[in-house]
Amino acid sequence: MKICVLVKEVPDAAVEKRINPSTGRMDRSGEKNLNPYDTHAIEAAMQLREGGAVAVEEIVAVTMGPESAVRALHKAVSLGADRSVHLCDELLAGSDVAATGYALAKAIESESPDLVLLGQQSDDGECYTIGAVVADHLRMPSLTQVIKLDVIDSEPSAPGLPGLRCERQAEYGYDTVQVQLPAVISVGDAINEPRYPSLKNIMGAKKKPLDTRTASEVGIDSGFVGPDGSRVHCGEFHAPPAKPSGQIIEDEDTAETVARIVAWLDERKLI
Amino acid sequence: MADVLVYVLHYEGAFNKNSLGAVSEGAARAADVGGACDAVVVGGEDLTDELCGTLGAYGARKVFRANGPEGLAQPVVDVMAKVIADHGHSYAIFGGGLLGFEIGAGLAARCRAGVTMEVTSVRADGDELVAERPILGDSQISVSRYRGGLGIIIGRINAFELRESGSAAAAVEDVEVAFSPWSTRATMVTRGEQRGADVDIEGADILVAGGRGLGNADGFQLMEQLAGAFGANTAVAATRAVVDAGWYPYAAQIGQTGKTVAPKLYLAAGISGAIQHKVGMQSSENIVAINKDANAPIFEFSDLGIVGDLNKIVPKLTDAIRARKGS
Ligand SMILES: Cc1cc2nc3c(=O)[nH]c(=O)nc-3n(C[C@H](O)[C@H](O)[C@H](O)COP(=O)(O)OP(=O)(O)OC[C@H]3O[C@@H](n4cnc5c(N)ncnc54)[C@H](O)[C@@H]3O)c2cc1C
Ligand SMILES: Nc1ncnc2c1ncn2[C@@H]1O[C@H](COP(=O)(O)O)[C@@H](O)[C@H]1O
Q: Pick from A98, B217, B232, B273: CA 20 to 30 A from residue A3's CA?
């Protein structure tokens, strides 16, 4: 089985994210990192490989992003991916969610994976939706927010490929859904505890194969990507109505802190 | 003129409240742009003419009903894509929730549509609809404008108010859809499993909520003791992170895929304040948060924030409240 894992480079959690008023896009100048949610997807791929229920021949990390995004790929490889694919093209900058999902689907298509894994959300875009967009383009079944993934026997209609039994929390409680491969699964952050990369793997990451692809190389129709190919335009950024900020207590002397909390609650007749 | 199509989720013969809010919103906004709002339902026998007709009360003109599996997104994408191809709706609106995100995104791919998620407000501008979405941890609002074709709006949970506007029953039309091969490759095994005890957090005046900062399942004892100190009408609540980890029952979860609560006091310990949690508790009258990270998002919407270690503060607070109550 071959697994593609989608990974994204995002501003580091410590960087205050903001919109660059002149471009109307995310300001990407600060420190960057691999989207933390994607480490769970890589870990899920590794656990499938190590679980032994199915032979995983290859784990390929795939990203779409500017040149700097290779660092996210290196990190993904240090966490276990065997090689990576970088879809990098000026034409793709400014793509909306639907266009990004389409472009990623084209890049994945040329890899023909049996399973596509991705994170539940990107730390910057927070759209929760790339997986479902990619799946429809790839004509694969898809689920998001999966927190448990078990390999099950193949369906008679698709001999050879195993199925997956997936659990997730939905509107009315926990759902268990059976999915036939090939499929696109986005994993929730409760699915596993990602491992730390070993020093050896960090050092070796840059030596693993990395293919850089342009939009035309993977067959992307330029009319469907970039600002002109996007069907929604986001802008007119403004601050939400200001809300009076609350009171903050820094806990130094806990007895005093607690006395202040109790007084605050007392004042509001909450005790 | 622009018509709006809304997906309405149901479970065990009842419609989802957020979906009904989306119908209300769809009907009001469609009226603003001189159109009408229709609904789509997908399921089995429990989708009776009578039940479907009740969507008229929220402003639906017509209900398109398809027979298909419940609780899965892709079959609904097939149905909506067909209804839109046949009837030419300009916008599709979803209430929040997991399926709304999945269906809206799948439909965006299928119809090459623009999509905006986490929408908190929709308004008409001329004969078009414009959607507003908070971004970057709710620090900014972004405005989405659609460029022709279908525009998809996925609401944030509880964003669309439920309004009974119409009165007549909506007309029901059955649609026959050949599902895409990939839509039939996911099947529901069990749906709506309730994990853990059945606790009531919606009736409580005071909620003490615990998150991943409690460290492990045993950490909830601290919260139970604190709840005990507050006394009657107090319950313990939780975040999804700890429910998924099996530390606390699902019935105690607040947020997007949990309960929406508005107690007199909501006191959080070890909770970061993710948007999906916030949407379930932001209407609480008084919000108090204990978190060791001064930059935790929860402090942005707390009335009283305490920056410190919950392991030091919560036990002492429990004692102090007990003492105060005893006096
Ligand atoms: C589609 C979707 C639906 C979701 N639905 C829900 C939902 O219904 N409800 C929900 O809650 N979440 C939901 N989530 C998950 C949500 O995004 C967050 O991941 C979750 O709320 C985080 O839970 P948490 O605050 O317990 O954990 P974390 O985000 O890990 O926060 C733990 C906090 O504890 C603090 N802490 C650690 N140790 C201490 C200490 N000793 N003293 C004090 N503070 C400490 C840390 O500083 C941190 O801020 C959903 C997500 C998605 C994508
Ligand atoms: N540009 C990208 N390149 C690769 N993967 C991406 C990209 N954007 C989003 N993803 C994947 O999609 C997931 C969900 O992202 P989002 O829908 O933006 O919240 C992320 O966790 C990534 O796995």
A: A98
Which three-class secondary structure string do you get for B123-186?
A: EEECCEEEEEEEECCCCEEEEEEECCCCEEEEECCCCCCCCCCCCCCCEEEECCCCCCHHHHCE
The per-residue DSSP string of B40-73 comes to EEEESTT--HHHHHGGGGGT-SEEEEEE--SS-H
Structure tokens at B38: 């229709």
- Nearest CA distance, B39 vs chain A (angstrom): 19
pLDDT digits (tens, 9 = 90+) for B14-61: 999 999 999 999 999 999 999 999 999 999 999 999 999 999 999 999
Helix (H) or strand (E) holding B220: helix B220-230
Give the residue on A whose Cα is nearest the Cα of B75.
A141
Distance between start and end Cα atoms, chain B? 67
- Whether B189 maps to a domain, the answer reads no
A231 near B CB under 8 A: yes
Q: What is the pTM of this model?
A: 0.96
Tokens of A259: 């006395």
- Dihedral sign (CA B242, B244, B247, B250): positive
Q: Cα of A38 to ligand 1 centre, how many Å?
A: 17
Rounded to 5°, the CA angle B56-B62-B63 comes to: 90
Residues B162 and B231 in one domain: no
Q: Single out the residue in B123, B153, B184 at which a domain terminates.
A: B184
Q: Is residue B94 part of a domain?
A: yes
Evaluate if residue A158 carries a pLDDT over 80. no
What's the ipTM?
Answer: 0.95
Q: What is the CATH number of the domain that holds B213?
A: 3.40.50.1220
* Same structural domain, B224 and B172: no
Is there a contact between A133 and B241 if contact means CB atoms under 8 Å apart? no
Average pLDDT per block of 10 residues along chain B, 327 residues long:
95 96 98 97 96 97 98 98 98 94 98 97 97 93 94 96 88 98 96 94 97 97 98 96 96 96 98 97 98 96 98 98 87
CB distance B244 to ligand 1 below 6 Å: no
- Domain interval for residue B298: 206-325
* pLDDT recorded at residue B327: 61
Share of chain A above pLDDT 90, in %: 85
Cα dihedral angle (A102, A235, B23, A125), rounded to 10 degrees?
50
- Dihedral angle at the C-alpha atoms of A64, A70, A73, A77, nearest 10 degrees? 150
pLDDT, tens digit (0-9, with 9 covering 90-100), for A109-125:
999 999 999 999 999 88
Residue-range domains of chain A with CATH: 2-229 (3.40.50.620)
Of A7, A87, A72, A70, which Cα lies nearest the Cα of A42? A7
Total domains in chain B come to 2
CA A238/CA B142 separation, integer angstroms: 7
Amino acid (1-letter code) at residue B294: A
